[in-house]
Each structure stands twice: as C-alpha cells, then as structure tokens.
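Hello Y.,

Per our agreement to keep a running log of every chain we model this quarter, I'm adding this entry. I've kept the format consistent with earlier entries: sequence first, then predicted structure.
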Amino acid sequence: MVARKTVCLRRLGGDRGGELRAGRFFANPKVTAARIVEGWSDLTGAAAAGRHVLAIQDTTEVKFPTTAQRRRGLGPVKKGNTYGVVAHAMIAVDAESHACLGLVGGDVRTRDGLVTEHHRDRPLSARESRRWTDTAERAKAVLAQAAMVTVVADRESDIYPAWASVPRAGFHLLSRAMVDRRLVDGGTLFSAAERFTVAGTRTIELPARQPDRAARTATVEMRFGAVEICRPRDERDRDLPKTVRLRLVDVREVAPPEGVEPLHWRLLTTHDVADAAKAWEIVGWYQARWVVEQLFRVTKSQGLRLEDSQLASADRLVKLAATAIKAACIDIQLVQERDGKHLLPASTVFTEPEIETLEALVPTLEGATERQKNPHPVRSLAWAGWAIGRLGGWNCYYKPPGPITFRRGMEQFYAIHRGRMLGLQLE
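Predicted structure for the entry above:
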C-alpha cells in the first residue's frame, strides 16, 4: 500500500495471481484486525525513547457504498444513514518538532447496530467512549521509554473517567472541553474562564478542513487558570474520586471575519500552567492534533481512497482499513522527513533487513557531484528517504521528491529488497 498508494487488491497484487494472494490474506480468519492494530506500534516505542510525546487520538468513520441488497455486513455510521467502519487511532508526535513517530494503538471495527439505550444508563465498558481511556491506557506500555507523554484529543474525549483514572506522573491529558462541568466552588467550567484575565494575544494559523473551512489566520486572546471539577451526579462508577484538579486554557478569537464562526477553544489539561508561556505551549500542543486529521485524510480522500474499496464483506473491510491506516502513517513519515529536520532514525519506518538493503543501495545511487551525495546521517530516516527518492527518479536537483516520486521509489525498493532476501535464502 505504501509503495502503490492504493487499497485496490488488483493494483496491490500487480497481476491476477497477486490479486488472489492479497484476497486470501484478508479472507484468512487467522488474520484479524486486532492483530494488525497490535502491530501498528512495533517501531514506535523505540522512536519515542527520551522524548516528550504527544499521543494524539481521534476517531473517523469510513463509509462504503452499499445498497439495500448489498450491505456487505457493515454497520451504521454517520448518524445511522450510511454504512461503514469505525476507526480509532492514536499517533505519536514529538512535542517539540511535531515529527510523526508512528502509531501507538487504536481500534477498527463495524457496529452491530444503533444503540437506543442512553449512555448514562450504561457502564463505561458498554459505551463507545471507552475507546478514549482504553487507548490511553495501552499507550502507557507502548510509550514507556518516553520522557513524558501528553495524550491529546478533541471534545469527544472529555469524559470524567479519563480525567479521574488515566493521568499519572509523567503521563498527562490535554483535551478540548465539551461539558460545562460543575466546579467545587459552586460555579461552572465555562463561566470560570470569564473571570480569568487576558494573558496575551497572538495570531495562529488554522489549516483548511474539508469540506467547509479554508485555511486562515485567527487573532486570539488567551486566558488561563486552575479549576477543580466535580464527579458528575450520574456517573455510575462511584469509586472514581469526587473531584479532579485541572488547568483551563481559554482561547477565543477576536474580530473574526464576517460570516465566519469565531474560534473558541476551552482546553483542559493535567499539566501545571504557571505562566502565559506555558499556556501558549499548551495551545501549540493542541494544534498538533492536525497530524491525526492528516492521517485520516491520507487514508481516505487524499491518498489511499479506502472508501472506494469493493471488498465484499465487513470482516475484510475492517482488516483492510486497519492496514491502510498503518500505510498512511508511513507515507506521512516519509514525506515529512525528506529534509531530515526531525533527525528520526530509519528504524521508525524500515525493518533492520530493509535498512541493510538500503546500506547496499546508497553507494550505487550516489553520483560524482556533491549535490548527488546522500547528505544525511547513515541509518536516519532522511538518509533512507533520499535513497527512495533516487530510486523514484529524483536527480538531486530542483525541488525535493514528492509523493509520486516516493511511490515509484518504494515500488523499486521493495522489488530490490525481495530479490536480495531471496538471494540470501538461496545461498
């Protein structure tokens, strides 16, 4: 998928025999989505070692074309009026450089049907919202070598059990608030921000969001302060602490363009926020959440076009989606690191045998001039990306290699690597 930028089995296989092999793989009952997701993080833990990691999580719904006669076993998505797969993913990003370090974990599945019982009447274990706490808890093992972890998410993750049970020393939460919670002092969360004094004003860049938001610059005021939220009265788990102390960073747009909804972020975090500099840092970490949205875009409309798949069963589509998310993450890493500014190791993407193949290839790809020498540290991801770009036809001049060049290069590389591994087996 990384090499050919597609999820189409015919194009993945290359010929009829390859298409059948790919089909048998996804049809095999021993191949499960859970095992594929488990493998997402194989290289991420080492890449995160010693770093402050933003563990950014979000959910996307992948809709597939169906008819009344051909539901393909898919469950409802998009408020129940279409059918598809629900994919939840957590991606690791360096807090300082925003370099993508790889996937951490998640879940890919199809719904059995619409739930009619209100979520307040069900324990957390029976709610979809448990994905926010389950994925965060699994991240503790995957990112154990990180210096610090901050789990970042949008409003859906604002559930009391997460604030009350997930954080620990060196493992923090940062989320946009959705619920106007009761505070210990008798007030409410949203009204508390109104009492905070303005701590600074800045302009921030807002990326485009399809289909209705163009990229723009927003001028915002920032306020911050401490709050202590109360356990909801309808919380079923009475073992959770009665209160949790958090920090609120309130960011609101001033003088928005006419006809545009003004930006307003109420950011809750377990980090200490002692001054304005720290509060702006919190805002910057939340803005890095764009990386997980990019991951889903590359998986769907702007890359692999997962939603065009014609696989006939939900079981195969779930496994295909789990594989596509991993491929999309690798694609982001390769394009992001082509200039070497993040200093990531090649092992972030490539296995040790693949790196050994790259070591043998690089001297054959270098030319006589200085511009045609690989300028990056050996075994860095940028060094590997330089080789992939050369295999894809890049001449080391003009602009850096783009997605099409990388696609061609990855096809060439994997063909060479397979040949090398076959040769080693025959020796």
